[in-house]
Design brief:
Chain A: InterPro entries: Beta-grasp_dom_sf, MOCS2A, Mopterin_synth/thiamin_S_b, ThiS/MoaD-like. Chain A: Belongs to the MoaD family. Chain A: It holds the Pfam family ThiS. The structure holds 2 protein chains of 2 kinds. Chain A is α+β, with helices and mostly antiparallel strands. Chain A has 3 helices and 5 strands; from the N terminus they run βαβααβββ. Chain A has a 5-stranded mixed sheet with strand order 2-1-5-3-4. Chain B is an alpha+beta fold. In chain B, the strands form 2 sheets. A 4-stranded mixed sheet of chain B has the order 1-4-6-2, with helices on both faces. Chain B has a 4-stranded antiparallel sheet with strand order 5-3-7-8, with no helix packed on it. In chain B, strand 7 and strand 8 (130-133) form a beta hairpin. In chain B, helix 2 runs antiparallel to helix 3 (101-118). Classes of the chains: A alpha+beta, B alpha+beta. At the A-B interface, loops of A face helix 3 and strand 7 of B.
Amino acid sequence: MDVLYFAWVRERIGLPREKLETSARTVSELVDELVAREERYAAAFADRSALRVALDQELSGFDASLSGVREVAFFPPMTGG
Amino acid sequence: MRISVQEASFDPGQEMNAFASGRKDIGAFVTFTGVVRDTGEQKLQVMEIEHYPGMTEAALRDIAQQAVSRWSLGDVLVIHRYGTLKPGEVIMMVATAARHRKDAFEAAEFLMDYLKSRAPFWKREVTENGATWVAARDADEDALERW
């Protein structure tokens, strides 16, 4: 599974994307796995309410299933326009 | 409908003329142009705009499709830049074409409100005191409720 990070999430984790093998069933479980891995993930995901997630480029929720998902992206609320 | 996510600068006047060219069935064009603004408190050197290639185009197309399904529109144009921009530079533009002005105005406002908080762009302001990511404003999220 490809996991992408944007804006300050990318800066805190220190890379724009990575390939992960995971048995996580939901986005929340994936975040739990990452947070347990290293401090930089814990820093990036410290406040989940300040983050958005997209599954295969569709905005989604942290309780969403990862079944069949190829690309997960984490980012702060958007600021376009 | 034209959606463009691009690094290159553009001329809003030229884009408007091309958008309007040859349309005899349209009574109203509304355009909005966004410009990088220096708020003045801390001198803005550049604005960096990050986006999510692929998702950005799809999100803009989806927002434009929603506008087309809600109002009677002849055409829609959305251009949004990414990369490093200086104060005074054009950052984005929307244009709507309709038989009547109400549809054109409302659809343009809808496009802007959705684009602000549903299109995957992130702005980072670089000043002489350092760089900060622009935080999303609650008012932008609240603006969606009226639609």
